[in-house]
Each structure stands twice: as structure tokens, then as C-alpha cells.
Amino acid sequence: MIENAKCRLRVANERDYSDVLCLYRELMGEIPVLCGSEGAAEFNRILALPGTSIAVAEAGGQVVSAATLHVLPNLTHGGRPYALIENVVTLRAFQSRGFGRAVMNFARDRAWAMDAYKIMLLTGKAAGVRGFYERLGYTGDDKHAMTLRRSPARQPQPGNLPQ
Questions:
Q1: What is each CA distance from 149 to 88, 99, 146, in whole angstroms?
Q2: Does 123 or 76 have the greater pLDDT score?
Q3: Which domains does the chain have, with CATH numbers?
């Protein structure tokens, strides 16, 4: 756990389900988010998955930003793992105040502490979103990401860009 003047950074636990659910609903817009007892069970399964954690920023007793970190085993690079960050979101009311940046840095530090040799993420094409990650040191010049989906990609919600 890390505390700074703005927020408390930590790994999510089962008590954070409601706050994280609120974040994901804001992130996903019209696309359903698993909720209720089924959602709570899946949330706890995610938290228990080895190498997986949800980094959160808490302000005023409320989780206001989150990013899911998966650190995955690997045989290449001398057996060093690699990391994937997904579901990065900050509540609209708390954007542009450094919470997203703080959560991403916290997740990065966790990945490096687990000896990951790289961190990957996928992001939308909007310049503001790309700029957010570029300011954190991420680059789109290294490799080309591709996806294969069973369902349509979500459209970004107005004003819901990482900050």
C-alpha cells in the first residue's frame, strides 16, 4: 500500500467489489458488466488468480481508479514473466487529477517487482488516450497489436478517457 497527498494506492480486495463494479459500468457503457452474486464470485476468482491483481486508487474512502494487472509465466527472456494491463478506468468525476497515472505507476511497479521484462496494454485510437499512456512511457512503435473478438468492440464513452 502506498499513500500520497491525493490517494491511497493498494491492491483491491473482496470489499472493493461494489466500487470496482461502479468503475467498470462507467468504463463499459452499454456493454453488460457481470454483477450480483455471480459478479462477486467472479471478482473474487480474479483476485485469487496467481499473478493477477487489481491496482486501485482510493480517495475519501472510495475506489476512484483501477487497473487490472496480469503477470504471466514465460519461457523466453530467461523465464522472466511478461505483464498485461487491462480495464484501466477512473471515475469521470475524478479524472484529470492524477489518479489514473498513480494507478498505472503502481501497477508498473508491481510488474517490475515480479521481474516482468515488459508490460503490454491495448488502448483505443483516440489521441487523448494514447497521449495518456505515452506520457507514462508506453510506446506504440515497438510492436503491432491485433485482436480477434467474439463480440463487437465497445465504443469509448464520452469524457471517459484515462487522465
A1: 19, 30, 10
A2: 76
A3: 2-135 (3.40.630.30)
What residues does 7 pair with on adjacent strands? none
List pLDDT tens digits, range 46-99: 999 999 999 999 999 999 999 999 999 999 999 999 999 999 999 999 999 999
The pLDDT of residue 140 is: 86
Q: Spell out the long-range contacts of 41-44 with Cβ–Cβ below 8 A and sequence spacing 24 or more.
A: 43/14, 43/17, 44/14, 44/17
Q: In angstroms, rounded to a whole number, what is the distance separating the alpha carbons of residues 132 and 100? A: 9
Q: In degrees rounded to 5, what are phi and psi of residue 43?
A: -60, -45
pLDDT at residue 41, rounded to an integer: 97
What is the C-alpha to C-alpha distance for residues 103 and 163, in angstroms, rounded to an integer?
11
Q: Please give the Cα distance from 157 to 148 (Å, whole number).
A: 22
DSSP string, 12-77: --GGGHHHHHHHHHHHHTTS----HHHHHHHHHHHHHSTTEEEEEEEETTEEEEEEEEEEE--SSG
